[in-house]
Design goal:
two-stranded antiparallel ribbon, alpha+beta
């Protein structure tokens, strides 16, 4: 068991910086999020992100696209690359390469 019992953070509203919201993660949600999980990410977060995409962009889950959530390491980029996306031909990679050369 981890020594943490909860995590809390406060964030400003992107539309009204005078408003703040505090979020706390504890209990079962914290216990699950601190464990190794599925490669594509924490299921509760993925479902929330799918719902956000549907609400904001009208894109429904299962329409030929998917969401993967990573910790920020390049492991996820590699795993996506194995699935067919060519990172080196992407606009992001070309832009980064031209800046670093």
């Amino acid at each position: 068991m981890f020594p943490f019992t909860s995590f809390s953070f406060t964030a400003r509203s992107p539309t009204d910086p005078s408003q703040e919201t505090t979020t706390t993660i504890d209990g079962v949600d914290l216990a699950q999020s601190l464990q190794y999980g599925p490669t594509d990410g924490y299921k509760g977060l993925l479902e929330w992100l799918y719902g956000l995409q549907e609400k904001a962009h009208g894109r429904k889950k299962g329409e030929g696209w998917r969401i993967s959530v990573g910790s920020g390491s390049q492991d996820l980029i590699y795993k996506v690359g194995v699935g067919g996306w060519n990172f080196r031909s992407s606009a992001y990679f070309r832009a980064r390469a031209s800046v670093t050369q």
